[in-house]
Amino acid sequence: MDVRVSGEPRPLPGGIDVTAYRIVQEALTNALKHGNTTKAEVTVRYADHSLRVEVLNSGPSVLTSDGSAPPGGPAGARASVPADGAGRGLLGLRERVAVYGGDLDARRRLGGGYRVRARIPLDRP
Prior knowledge:
Blueprint: E1 2-7, H1 14-34, E2 40-46, E3 50-57, H2 88-99, E4 103-108, E5 114-121
Parallel strand pairs: 1-2
Antiparallel strand pairs: 2-3, 3-5, 4-5
């Protein structure tokens, strides 16, 4: 697993800190539980007005360019993973991120694997 931190790290409000931790935890748990993952990348970016968290994992290619499953399709546990990232764990994370005015996007990657990306504002009025 590769971990990258960009921007100037600074103290975060407790709720945002825990939310970022949970995003990484859920994304990595899902990668191990549902995918045939060989590599994961975690990026935390401290931007001027937001915190951005992205978790990418590798795995077999599960989608074609038109969004359909390839011939033979995914089998076993992978077949039960929603392509749009609408699983219960990710749904809970979306709600948690929304509390801070942010957004979370989770989806399969065309080249294989999965991406979870969140943006959490740090200067909410």
